[in-house]
From TrEMBL:
GO terms for molecular function: dioxygenase activity; nitronate monooxygenase activity. Keywords: Dioxygenase, Flavoprotein, FMN, Oxidoreductase. It comes from Aurantiacibacter luteus. Coiled coil: none annotated. This is 2-nitropropane dioxygenase. The keyword Metal-binding does not apply. InterPro entries: Aldolase_TIM, NMO. The keyword Cytoplasm does not apply.
Length: 336
């Protein structure tokens, strides 16, 4: 058994919180983070998270059951706060005794944190500002992920290095905080742990793991891409506050700009409400991501990827990726 004493010590709080050997989460990736990748991550000592995305409660129920059949290690479920059946999805997690629920995509609606805690699960939240982070943690959330704009998928405007400097000195002593966005190697993990993070969350680095069901062409696009190819989408209408998405540039990213114009046009006519407009944009992404991940349409689909994509060069088992990250982190700490 390989040992990582310095890393283990710095990850102790995160490992306790997650119930894992390593405080490394594989962030939920819609369509990618399903039973195969999630169980592989958890079986390798990390923490896998099912991406519920736009799934119905029935589909989530089946996915959790299938994941449980593939691992007896802890794993979590990521729910998008704007999902119209959020509370039904929470009930499904409760029925399965899911230990950790991640609420993503916005401020948790009233009662959602309480509903999760009612079945003794831990609630992990995201917060774009320090003030909101403090509020959520004081009002019941158990842990926080701070995610910088280097990340793949939906992103905020601030980089991971700046968020870490703003949030960790204020929060890390009292709360469990995981750092995400742009992490591709263990040396970076060492740095965030030394700043007080309890652990880290990676997505891009795991998307092409051997166990990931992503289409071979999706994976090939990742292997070819460099950091600069993972571009953030641009919001075209000031009334339609679209959360930017970082993805590899292709015809699909251009089509997203066109989709925003189309939805903004419908908003002009007054025939839909703002929430509905935003939901249409979200559904667009869910569909586009599916086309790329499942169908392998790397031209028109969405190749959500973070800037660390340049460090993804080949298919590797999840266990090897985790072992490499842990080794790099331990070596970096040993050199201090
Ligand atoms: C293909 C892809 C899909 C993603 N889908 C989701 C999602 O459904 N929900 C979510 O909270 N985060 C999602 N993310 C973000 C990841 O969970 C994770 O926080 C992020 O990838 C970390 O940054 P990194 O890509 O730089 O490692 C996605 C990321 C990628 C690359």
């Amino acid at each position: 058994m390989t040992s990582y004493p310095k890393t283990d010590a710095l990850m102790a709080r995160g490992r306790d919180f997650l119930g894992t050997d390593h405080a490394i989460l594989c962030g939920a990736m819609s369509w990618v983070s399903e039973r195969n990748l999630v169980s592989a991550i958890s079986n390798a000592g990390g923490f896998g998270v099912i991406a519920c995305g736009a799934m119905t409660p029935e589909l989530l129920d089946a996915e959790i059951a299938a994941t449980k059949a593939m691992t007896d290690k802890p794993f979590g479920v990521n729910l998008i706060t704007m999902h119209p059946q959020l509370f039904d999805l929470i009930k499904v997690c409760g029925r399965h005794g899911v230990g950790h629920v991640v609420l993503a995509g916005g401020i948790p609606p009233k009662g959602s944190v309480e509903a999760i805690k009612a079945f003794d699960a831990k609630v992990i939240v995201f917060a774009p500002t320090l003030a909101l982070a403090k509020k959520l943690l004081r009002s019941g959330a158990d842990a926080l992920v701070i995610e910088g704009m280097e990340a793949g998928g939906h992103i905020g405007p601030v980089s991971t290095s700046v968020l870490a400097q703003e949030f960790l000195p204020e929060l890390a002593e009292d709360y469990v905080v995981f750092v995400a966005g742009g992490i591709g190697r263990g040396e970076a993990i060492a740095g965030y742990l030394e700043m007080g993070a309890s652990g880290v969350q990676l997505g891009t680095r795991f998307a092409c793991a051997t166990e990931s069901i992503a289409h071979p062409d999706f994976k090939k696009a990742f292997f070819r891409a460099k950091a600069r190819d993972a571009e953030a989408s641009v919001q075209v209408d000031p009334r339609l506050p679209v959360i930017p998405v970082r993805a590899l540039k292709n015809k699909g990213t251009d089509a997203f700009t066109a989709k925003q114009r189309e939805v903004a046009g419908i908003l002009d006519t007054g025939s839909i409400e703002m929430l509905e407009a935003q939901l249409q944009i979200e559904h667009y992404w869910a569909g586009a991501l599916r086309r790329a991940v499942i169908d392998g349409d790397v031209e028109n689909g969405s190749l959500m990827a973070g800037q660390s994509v340049g460090m993804v060069t080949q298919e590797e088992p999840a266990a090897d990726i985790i072992a490499a990250l842990m080794r790099q982190c331990e070596d970096a700490l040993a050199r201090r």
